[in-house]
Amino acid sequence: MRDQNQNQNVSDDLLTIAGKSYNSRLLVGSGKYKDLQQTREATDAAAAEIITVAIRRVNIGQDPKAPSLLDVLPPSQYTILPNTAGCYTARDAVYTLQMARELLNGHKLVKLEVLGDEKTLFPNMPETLVAAKELVQDGFDVMVYCSDDPIQARMLEDIGCVAVMPLASLIGSGMGILNPWNLSLIIEQARVPVLVDAGVGTASDAAIAMELGCDGVLMNTAIAGAQDPVRMARAMKLGVQAGREAFLAGRIARKFAASPSSPMAGRMV
């Protein structure tokens, strides 16, 4: 079981994935913005360092004649995290990330997601496990989108994935964390970072995920789909920071009785 380090210095409280440390625990997507300039502005407002990119939907060099995301989010300043959004089989997911590795000059850190159907975008866990095993054996550092099933999460960790990313609720739904108990079970047993992926709607959802003990949160639609994406990005940054601080501070126990802020003992009059 994980211990809360209540004396953690904020400046030393880094997120470490696959041996590399990051100041920000907020990871953001790069899709659904009105243009690349807004993508950059929202990313900077979120203070994000890891940016996930849907290789099948976003140009990072596949089309040399079209604007590239890397023009506004260069790998020299950000960690680009290629993902397999839109893949429904292990074979397609593995091929997509192998292509991303070529486009990004041997980049190893990737996000695996194998979807079950187009309606729910829920993870297909049997195919996810197959793809994860093949990618790890091929030398990738695999962060993996998964169901909030603690058994499946442990299986992915045993395969060698560097982070597990259970969904809070359906992708793009904005419903927040629907099953905090399962998420807590995954966090309690995990030896690798646990990051909530999918379903966050607003800053309070991000804060709750961090208060539960998640190592980070990944989101896209909640920011890009907001009426003011740049302002929402700032709000998400603060929500993640507040939730992390609350987790490290250690909340008071829940009780079924009142406890006065000003005790009766020691009264002056």
Mean pLDDT: 92
SS class: alpha/beta
**What is the H/E string?**
EEEHEEHEHEHEHEHEHH
Counting DSSP E segments of at least 2 residues, the number of strands comes to 10
Distance between the termini: 47 Å
Spatially, the strands of the biggest sheet line up as: 5-4-3-10-9
Unreliable stretches (pLDDT < 50, length at least 5) are: none
Strand content: 15-25%
Oligomer: single chain
Given the C-alpha coordinates, what overall shape results?
A: globular
Provide the gyration radius in Å.
19 Å
Largest beta-sheet details: 5 strands, parallel
Number of helices: 8
As a percent range, the share of helical residues equals 25-40%
Can you walk through the features of this model?
The chain is an alpha/beta fold and 269 residues long. It is built from 8 helices and 10 strands. The strands form 3 sheets. Strands 5-4-3-10-9 form a 5-stranded parallel beta sheet. A 3-stranded parallel beta sheet has the order 6-7-8, covered by helices on one side. It is globular, with a radius of gyration of 19 Å.
List keywords for this structure.
269 residues; alpha/beta; five-stranded parallel sheet; three-stranded parallel sheet; 8 helices; 35% helix; globular
Quick structural gist:
This protein is an alpha/beta fold and 269 residues long. The chain is 35% helix and 15% strand.
